[in-house]
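Moderator note: this is an archived Q&A kept for reference. The question asked for a predicted structure of one protein chain; the sequence and the answer are reproduced below.
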Amino acid sequence: MSQKNPNTDIRCRVSSCTYHCGDRDYCTLNSIQVEPCQNCGSGQACDESMCGSYRHK
């Protein structure tokens, strides 16, 4: 497996994403797209946005 280089400007704990940096809590992309969640507007942080760049491993 190739070594992934962390982008220390993008913190990430989603280990199921192909862009997650292994045992380090960073993304390996140069940038990400933050998308609104469907039916957002509840005011709860977990319901408002998600990473649109996520790809399952």
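Archived answer notes: Residues 45-48 form the longest helix (4 residues).
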